[in-house]
Amino acid sequence: MKETLLSIHVIPNSKSASISYDEWRKKLVVKINAPPVKNKANRALIDFLSKLFNAEVRIIKGETNKNKVVSILKDSQEIRKILERKGIELSKIEEI
Description:
Blueprint: E1 4-11, E2 18-22, E3 27-31, H1 40-53, E4 57-61, E5 67-72, H2 76-85, E6 94-95
Parallel strand pairs: 1-3
Antiparallel strand pairs: 1-5, 1-6, 2-3, 4-5
């Protein structure tokens, strides 16, 4: 199975968890309802993305920053299909 890297901008303390694409930033935007204290937002992000993609997710860059790079153990084409079902079309996903 391939590993896919996604560049993500996280917005903590949101009313509900959601995912969208920001054309200006050229990044996925993930809203998380957890606060950015004691790693709560990171854990909520991993939990949200793991459930969304049904795959193992880990943060590989940006542990203490709103801009993160996450690794998802799933092929980029499968990830693209899942995001398209959410109404998000991506022109490029980094893949390892």
